[in-house]
Amino acid sequence: MHRRYRPLAQLPSLCALALSLTLALPHKALAQAAAAATTTQAGAASEPLSLQACIDRALQKNFGLAIQRFDAANSREALTIARADYDPALTLTTGKSVNQSDNPDTSLVGTRNDTFSARAGVTQKVATGATLSLTQSLNRRGTNNNFALLNPAYNADLSLSVSQPLLRGAGTRVNLAPIRRAEIGLEIASLNTTSRVLQVVRDTEAAYYALVYARESLKVRTQSLDLAQRLYDENTTRLRTGVVTDLDVLQAEVGVENARRSVLVAQQSVRDAEDRLLNLIGQFEFDQALGTVALPPTATFSPDFELSYALARKQQPEYRSAAEQIKQLQLDLATARRNRLPSLDLNVAGGYNTRDSTLGRTYNRLPDGDGYTWQIDLALRMPWGLRAEKARYNTALNNLRREETRLRQIEQNLALEVRSAVRAVETNLETVTISRKATELSARQYELERARFDAGLSTSRRVLEAQDDLETARVAELQSQVNLRTAMAELNRIDGTSLALYNIELPAN
Question: Which of 177, 224, 329, 435 could form a disulfide with 480 if both were Cys (CB 3.0 to 4.6 A apart)?
């Protein structure tokens, strides 16, 4: 499941390249730039801020992940709704009525009937599609008719009825399909949450590395400003002794101003990088100071496409989600195939009924009395041609085939993503080595050019050019280290290994 890493020493930090040059008396412009750089760095807390801590905060506070959790919660409720269709349903109805007939043609007083009725029942749906109903009813009838044999008269009955589809809507697969579909929907929601977690982890890694790059780049720009300022101060001193010309002083001053501009731009990049990271790991916490950050130790490995692709097919949420959606559409197709049949329902009902003058005697006679009723019937309904049913089946079949094709497309795109991610890691592994060598050579070039200038064999312009080359090389090496880690983060997102790498445990459904 996991790659076999061969731990190496941490790649050397570019900003740890120390130059043994000391500054002369600071120029006013240098003091202002240094103060600005110090202010930027002071905004960060002195406590270290690890990548693991940032990821933990992002998983707790990221807005996108919080929104995704609501979708997962709704999927759980949808499953409860589907299962509730098989919960027994209780019914209770009561009523009272009075009826008095007017007899204008006779001297008799109109007949008055008082009736009270109550009915209670329970209905249960079962997996075969049948509906079972058990009902109990009671009627009390009182009258002012002196010829009534029972006054009041109580009627009670107990009945059981069953309605079972025989064609359309029959069978456990069709009737349990909504529950199974909701279960798959919950799994899809969980996979979507996993996908969002992987994306948040990858984005947090990228934002963290970008902040490291921005801060370290600011240090490089500040050191370049220091070198440019020293050259300017030395040329100013040499101008008084006639060793250099006004052009050398002017070139050195241009170098100072260009370095100051680079520092200002780098300071803005640091603030922007801090905001982007805070946007991922917090909620409206842009004024919070971020601690010191550093590129975490990395381990090298030989990227393996076959291994990464196998992991991606097994763990990549989008691919697994598409496979689960196919299962849902297979259920829809099975239901649509069954529903192409006509409706044929078998209805069976039977029960007992009694009638007596008291409530107690009525209920006592209920199971032993002579009153009973039963019925059985078949109900057939078949729309002419079943055109709508056939069209629904064809639609379900087309949806299934479409999703199967989309799964193949996702599989191909996944292979492309893995190939690209593996290639990016391989390229950046080589780039780190090349960039480190380029930095070493640029540092030697600068030192030699500076020595030639001190000996009067070079010009300020050539020293500034060598200084620019050194700065570019140092920034490029830093960028190569960041690119390597970002490429590894993307590969870990694709094959799903970020969860194990950062000890992330997702809640069960």
Answer: 435
